[in-house]
Amino acid sequence: MKPTIAPFPAARPRRLRNTPALRSLVQETTLSVGDLIWPVFVREGENIEEPVPSMPGVVRRSVDRIVEAAKEAADLGIPVICLFPYTEGDKRTSDCAEAWNPDNLSNRATRAIKEAVPEIAIMTDVALDPYSDTGQDGFVIDGYVANDETIEALVKQALSQAEAGVDIIGPSDMMDGRIGALRSALEGAGHKDVALMSYSAKYASAFYGPFRDAVGAAGALKGDKKTYQMDPANSDEALRMVERDLMEGADMVMVKPGMPYLDICRRVKDSFGVPTFAYQVSGEYAMIQAAAQNGWIDGDKAMVESLMAFKRAGCDGILTYFAPLIAKGLLGR
Ligand code: PBG
What is the CATH number of the domain that holds 67? Predict the structure, then answer.
């Protein structure tokens, strides 16, 4: 399709920009509450909401408070809540056994939400970093994050999450072959309808810093994640990762981080036409909030613009810490 535009003054593109009514009429992209996935941090205890200093406005909640938050999100029409456990030192071990403990924090939160707020879908992360003493997403053997040994643990972790009742599993570990292994394990265990949203194009990024504070991994992390997360310089590779994950049984794919990788979102959507998501990560959130707190940008407007950009780039939805805030804005509450 060739764009057509008449020469000035036959064409005055400003004609269609002059009033809110006309702007709304020709708006190409829309953002709605149904596009949002809300990542939240869960911690032990009761009746606790503890601020995460590097993510202004974000808190870690005890399970009872997470249930209330899920209820609030469901009332706003947010379709999915995504749980991340904050783990204390003694839960981090070299065998990562807490990851598949049926009664771990994440699984308890899942059951509590399922019971109280059945209408919201629950997503969980599959990766060992909340449970490893190294802060890495897999087992470190001889100084290297071992692929195949890690997959065995990820399968156990995913099965315990499915057993607890999650709707969507998000493998964020970037091990090779994990989607196929998870898919066949889920099928084998009768969890046929648990969806996989693969972190297919996950980059080794500096923008995850505040998240690592939020889940207690910052102090634990030794080294970097460059032997499994992708090089920010690469784009063709992202398409290969997405294709591979789709072949192995992913239902949805994700690009992460978001805003610096909008080109990847667009290429993925155009190449495969599958449900495509972006994760507006902790560092992106923190940048907007920090600038807004200093009065350097209008935080509300920057939030809306940043999220609209994902839709324009072809994403079907966005994981964002702004979810409740933007939902209230969209609903005029
Ligand atoms: C863990 C995981 C990370 C994030 C989501 N899952 C951090 C990492 O890979 O180090 C980052 C989310 C964010 O920054 O908001 N595998």
Answer: 3.20.20.70
Alpha-carbon Rg of the chain, whole angstroms?
20
From 40, 58, 87, 208, the mutation candidate for ligand 1 (largest count of ligand atoms within 8 A of CB) is 208
- Residues lining ligand 1, Cβ inside 6 A: 125, 127, 129, 137, 172, 208, 211-212, 225, 281-282
pLDDT at position 220 over 80 = no
Q: Which of 38, 55, 203, 281 to mutate to test the pocket of ligand 1 (most atoms within 8 A of CB)?
A: 281
Active site residue 192: no
Query: What is the Cα–Cα distance from 85 to 276, expressed in whole angstroms?
Result: 25
ipTM: 0.97
The domain of 118 spans 31-331
Which residues, at least 6 apart from 51, have a Cβ–Cβ distance to it below 8 Å? 58, 59
User: What pTM did the predictor assign?
Assistant: 0.97
Interval 21-37: pLDDT, tens: 999 999 999 999 999 99
Counting the structural domains of the chain, the total is 1
Q: Please indicate, yes or no, if residue 82 is contained in any of the structural domains.
A: yes
Q: Is residue 18 part of a domain?
A: no
Q: Which atom of ligand 1 is nearest to the CA of 319?
A: 15
- 291 class by beta-carbon count within 10 Å (0-12 exposed, 13-18 middle, 19+ buried): middle
State residue 2's pLDDT score.
76
